[in-house]
Amino acid sequence: MSHLPSILHPAGIEAARISQLWWTMFWICTAVWIAVAVAALIAIRRGHRAAAVHVPDRTIVRNVATAAAISIVALIALLSQSVLIGRALNTLRSDDALRINVTANQWWWDIQYDNPVPSLRVTTANEIHIPVGKPVAFNLFSNDVIHSLWIPNLQGKIDLVPGRRNELWLQADKAGVYRGQCAEYCGLQHAKMALVVVADGHAANRDGVVSLMFDAVVFEALPKRSNAQRCPA
């Protein structure tokens, strides 16, 4: 099942945390906007009548102080939530996690499934298979310019910088197909630099993913036979 690429439809624990932060910011900003709109309407309504009325300085200071206090509280709440979510995003770790090397090129993704046994390393392009409910580590590289990997349903954005290795951890809690995209302008074909992440419930661990990938590679390598060859008379 293919899912709409959006942080509002999280399919993993990391994406759910980012979605929570987004909704927190949305509701706080909505409350602030409504308060400002109501204050503006009240000021417009009273504007003509209050033109000739003298307002004490103490009242003005109190109103300004109240508005400033509300703004500070809102900003502190947003900052605190952002820091807490940022720290929580770094807690997903596992010693036996599947490790995938993702190398960005103009304008495609080189995928290699790391394995202690060299003969079990699988290389593909623009398609990643991961198990459901298991942490997965991405080792991120770039061969040319700065790219940015973003899989909205599973994790936030992270840059791929030439000459540097970055690391991204994610976990898919729902089986399905999730679209990823380069989120950093990297040249003329930037908009077409996409990939798909397939979360498969049948692959319970690293060996399961490798097995599925080998099956796919062998199937594609088989000679294509006609119907007549398959069903001889």
Short note summarizing the structure:
With 233 residues, the chain is α+β, with helices and mostly antiparallel strands. The chain contains 4 helices and 10 strands; from the N terminus they run H-H-E-E-E-E-E-E-E-E-E-E-H-H.
- CATH homologous superfamily descriptor: Cupredoxins -  blue copper proteins
Q: Globular, elongated, flat, extended or rod-shaped: what is the shape? A: elongated
Structural class: alpha+beta
The side-by-side strand order for the widest beta sheet comes to 3-2-1-5-8
Number of helices: 4
Beta-strand proportion: 15-25%
- Total beta-strand segments: 10
State the CATH architecture: Sandwich
The SSE string, one letter per element, is: HHEEEEEEEEEEHH
Describe this structure in words.
The chain has 233 residues and is α+β, with helices and mostly antiparallel strands. It has a single domain (1-233), classed as Sandwich (Immunoglobulin-like), CATH 2.60.40. It has helices spanning 13-47, 57-88, 206-221, 227-230, and strands spanning 98-105, 108-113, 122-125, 127-131, 136-142, 147-150, 158-160, 166-170, 176-182, 194-200. It has a 5-stranded mixed β-sheet. A 5-stranded mixed β-sheet has the order 4-10-9-6-7. Helix 1 (13-47) runs antiparallel to helix 2 (57-88). Mean pLDDT is 82; it is low at 216-233.
